[in-house]
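User: Quick one: structure for sequence A, then sequence B.

Assistant: Sequence A:
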Amino acid sequence: MPDVNSISTTYDPYSSTRYTAKSNSKNTLTITNFIQLLAVQLQNQDMTNPMDNSEMMNQMTQMAMVQALSTMTETMTAGSAMDMTVYAAGLMGKEVTVAVMQENANGTLTLAGSKKGVIESVNLSGSAPTFRLKDDDTDYPLAYLMGLGDVTDSVENGNESGTDLT
């Protein structure tokens, strides 16, 4: 397969990317906005053809369900972040194997090897917990944790059975 970067000045079109819209006041409908919109709709409705009560109840029910799902998502996200924080803090002093990543020519990270060490410190101040190994100044994201103990042999040989890989 030819190198895409030698043909085009754009990035690799085969790499997967994901774009999501950020939530802001212009693209988010709150329950308050919905009630205001409903009040304006009721004020400006045609008196000869009023809004159907069941249609209005359907709209209110749908908005309540969206609000409940939004609250549930926020709660799940907060709970997941708390679980990750507790897990990271519990790794202090444990011997682990971490992935050593390297950036390749097109800017994606690839596995360059692994490193074994004892977790000396955990940083919980960022958006995701990071940790440092003893005698190593690199901040490793929790996602780089390959397993507890020395799992380099089974990772290099492709045999993960019987090994605790996290």
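Sequence B:
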Amino acid sequence: MVAWADYKAEAQKRGALALELYVAHSTPARAPEDVKASLPDHLAYQAELERTGQLAFAGPMSDETGEHMQGMGLIVYRAAGLEAARKLAEEDPMHKSGARSFVLRRWMINEGSLTLSVGLSTGVNTLR
């Protein structure tokens, strides 16, 4: 197994971005009613993390067919380290209540692209 720090150093040497984020794969741990009951507080918590710059992306995931919801979600945090990200995930009302459990991983972003278009006079915003 390769040490994370060594891999990151190699990625940076070859010119990759090597941006570290933290990904929580959140899965239902209780009945759907429990998940629904925690949803308002969960969404408020995520909105606060978004306002403070600690939430990069979040949202539900489909099943393997892409046709159905199973209550799973993916949350991508910006944090100073894995333990700081773990604290953010643990404080999420969905996880704190036990309605969902999570697995947290470091994620190194090396490749890809992001396009953001902001229409200053039209108010049209596009992210691709």
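The chain has four helices and six strands. The chain has a mean pLDDT of 94.

User: Thanks, that's what I needed.
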